[in-house]
Amino acid sequence: MVRVYLVLLLSIFLPAHSALAEEGDASSPASRGGPSGKPFNPDTSVNFLGLGQYGSAISNDRTQTTHNGLTLQEAEMQFTSDVDVYFRAVALFSVSQKANSTDYGIDPEEVYLETISLPNITIRAGKFKMALGKHNQLHTHAFPFIDAPLINQLLLGSEGLNESGISADALIPLPWYSEFTLQGISLANDTLYTSRSSGDFGGVAHLKNLWDLNDSLTMEFGLSGTAGNNQYGKNSSVLASDLTFKWRPTVGGKYRALIWSTEYLDGQRQGMVSTTTGESQQKLGGIASWVQYQFAQRWYGQGRYEYVGLPRSPGVSIQSKESALLGFFPSEFSGIRVQYDLIQNQARPQTDHAIALQYNVTIGAHPAHAY
User: Fold this and answer.
1) CA distance 176 to 217
2) What is the C-alpha separation between 292 and 300, in angstroms, rounded?
3) Contact 137, 261 (CB under 8 A)
4) What is the per-residue DSSP string for 325-362?
5) d(CA 350, CA 347)
6) How does DSSP assign 13-61, residue by residue?
7) What is the pLDDT of residues 70-100, one digit of tens each?
8) pLDDT at 116 over 60
9) Pairing of β 201-212 and β 217-229
10) Distance (Å, rounded) from C-alpha 210 to C-alpha 168?
11) What is the pLDDT of residues 150-206, one digit of tens each?
12) Helix H segments across the chain?
């Protein structure tokens, strides 16, 4: 089934411009002296993640999207192109395992249109990752660790806050880099919202500041939040803050670098109760802090600590997780990572352990990630 989807997707982009090239259409950009075929050839890339893992708390059932053994974690197909001098279009499709099945399906992860000609402001419309915190805006292959932080998974679900909406980013005239983002979103997220009414809309606000402390060190600080009606007809909201330091020396920066990043999410989900105990699960907050040190041109090591339960409703278990990761990246297009997790959950008497090995490969013209 996935092969059929791939053929259909490729057929959308390949035959049309191929035919024009063969016929030598006089109205084509190449005939007019413009960029040769560029408007009919979007930048195309494919990224795929292979994963092998084993954990004492991970299911052995292959129909579960997270299970022990070998699997294709995800593949992403991305098409990007300037539509004209006013707009850019991005279409990114994710191939991943369906829930409760061994089959794979294709879903639109991000499909949007954004402006490129307005000074100091960018308008975006479509389906995209919302500007809530820092980690939520990352694609799976760009995660600092193999998995997302626990608090992100518990509050926002496995896909994060990735909704249809409209967004405006504006640069604030300050001596340092400062950007304010305001977004209107649908409330389809099945963990935080799942509003019954398609007419309900929520919002996201995000303030990002970036300072150059010196030639080698930068500091980024962000504040953000989202709010809207949930499936109980009440309000759900998340407040987030993040702080990141990045150090890369001006001399020898190819071989050494250090990143320290911390993010905190505080969720309030009015009306949320446990389906098993009937206890309130309205309050849930947590923190994730990680450090990455690059000690050679192609090698780096990482450590992460997570704590869920700041704050929490009485029916929510406290969880903590410690992770260690070693990464080897021969180039910017390929990488291999091994990660070890030690997980403690108040609801489970024993400590759980997990080990994972992942390869990460990108082919094609993949756009640069956000700083």
Assistant:
1) 14
2) 7
3) no
4) EEEEEEETTEEEEEEEEEEEETTSSSPEEEEEEEEEEE
5) 9
6) HHHHHHHHHHHT-TTSTTTTTSSTTGGGS-EEEEEEEEEEEEETTSB--
7) 999 999 999 999 999 999 999 999 999 998 9
8) yes
9) antiparallel
10) 19
11) 999 999 998 999 999 999 999 999 999 999 999 999 999 989 998 878 888 999 999
12) 2-23, 150-156
Cβ atoms of residues 159 and 110 within 8 Å: no
| 56-63+115-364 topology per CATH | Porin (2.40.160)
Beta strand pairing status for 69-82 and 121-129?
unpaired
Contact assessment for residue 288 and residue 302, using Cβ atoms and an 8 Å cutoff? no
Q: Which of 214, 194, 76, 86 is nearest to 139 (CA)?
A: 76
- Whole-angstrom CA distances from 255 to 77, 250, 280, 297 are 31, 11, 50, 4
By the 10 Å C-beta count (0-12 exposed, 13-18 middle, 19+ buried), 215 is classed as exposed
- CA 170 vs. chain centroid, Å, equals 21
| C-alpha closest to that of 326 among 296, 351, 306, 346 | 296
Beta-bridge partner residues of 241: 223, 264
CA–CA gap between residue 105 and residue 2 (Å, rounded): 6
What does DSSP say about strands 162-171 and 177-186: parallel, antiparallel, or unpaired? antiparallel
CB 180 within 8 A of CB 174: no
Contacts with 309 (C-beta within 8 Å, 6 or more apart), sequence order? 284, 285, 286, 316, 317, 318, 319
Positive/negative CA dihedral, 345, 265, 73, 342 = negative
**Residue in this structure with the two tokens 């949320």, named with its chain if needed:** 272
Is the per-residue pLDDT at 275 higher than 90?
A: no
Return d(Cα 84, Cα 34) in angstroms, integer.
12
- The secondary structure of residue 296, as a DSSP letter, is S
Cα–Cα dist 303/294, whole Å: 12
| Residue (of 241, 254, 247, 238) closest to 209 by Cα position | 241
CB-based contact 212:242 (threshold 8 Å): no
